[in-house]
Amino acid sequence: MTPLTSLLRRLGRDRRGVAAVEFALISTFLFATLMVGLDFGFYIQQKLRLGSAVEQAAMLAYNQQVASDTSAISNYVRNFSGVKVAPTVAITCNGTTSCGDGKCSCITSTGTFALAAACNTSCSAYGSQAVSGNYLKIAATTPYSAVIVPDRYLGGKTISQYAVVRLQ
Question: pTM above the 0.70 mark?
């Protein structure tokens, strides 16, 4: 029997240090699991922050009513979203980019806008129970890149949030 073989047999029978090896293996697995959980949590946090900024911008637009400053609203979302990459903000009024033109629209059952004949009339012809008015939609998107999780789960995802507010 060679010295190497006898050493391996002796190590195979020895039970000292088994707990340390088990702890090292389990703690590595636990750490990896926690990191993946933190990555998903960070994604949700970014989504909530963007949603909160869009929501607050909608309240700002509602308080300004017809004279809503779309560039100030866009800047508000960009500055107060708290996401890693500044979001792209698109503001539309009644489905078009021109705001403050006094035209009224109805929100259809599919979520799009249809030009109404007059303001404050029923939108039942479009499958909606809403009343025609001047609607402002704020949509914000930002890319998300995961830290730990593979790209097929979170990498390259786009976080999108929007809010629609009736101004008039």
Answer: yes
Write the DSSP string, the chain: --HHHHHHHHHHH--TTHHHHHHHHHHHHHHHHHHHHHHHHHHHHHHHHHHHHHHHHHHHHHHHGGG--HHHHHHHHHHHS--SSPPEEEEEETTBS--SS---EEE-TTS-EEE-SSTT-B-GGGT---B-B-EEEEEEEEEE--SSS-TTTTTTEEEEEEEEEE--
Residue 92: partners with Cβ closer than 8 Å, 6 or more residues away: 99, 136, 137, 139
Model confidence pLDDT, tens digit, residues 100-123: 677 788 887 777 888 888 888 888
Smallest CA-to-CA distance from 99 within 59, 68, 55 is with: 68
Domain boundary assignment for the chain: 3-166
- Convert the pLDDT of each residue in 148-168 to its tens digit: 777 676 667 889 999 988 887
Distances 29 to 25, 39, 46, 146, 155 between C-alpha atoms, Å: 6, 16, 26, 19, 22
Tens digits of per-residue pLDDT, 137-146?
Answer: 899 999 988 8
